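Reviewer 2 asked us to include a model.

Predict the structure of this chain.
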Amino acid sequence: MSSGDWCLPDYPELDELDADMVRREGLCAAYNAAKSVAEHQAVLEQLLGSVGELVRIRAPFHCDYGYNIRLGDNTFVNFEAVFLDVAPITIGAHVRIGPNVQLLTPVHELDAERRRAGWSKAMPITIGDNVWLGGGVIVCPGVNIGENTVVGAGAVVTKDLPSGILALGNPARVIRN
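Predicted model (structure tokens):
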């Protein structure tokens, strides 16, 4: 599913994914209950695929698996972040992510029969260095956001954004360089 191709998950794969989700639930609960920076850091290192130096995520934080998330140095994630990391989510260094931001890699089948049958896929999200995502931003599957870009509060990013721009709206569109 994380390859970007439509697939029907098989049952052994679902058992593995269920075990991964149980692992994630325990680690997210521990993270969200942690009382110190040291406790938060220790849990993040177990939960995420990679964590740069000076990364801060304010609890509560929610994700699907955790191990598909990579965070660069000096990245800050505010309250109530939701990272659905069925496919990889890669976030550069010096990124600022506002409250209630959602990074969503799963793609849902539009055809009702295929959706009912369980067809699914996921597409990676990449966010470059020095990006700022305002509060409530939603980044859709397969999107790449170039470095030094600012995405205004409440924007829905459905397509790639180039480097060094300001994007606003639903769908997000370039306002200026």
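The chain has one domain: 11-176. The mean pLDDT is 92. We have added this to the supplementary material.
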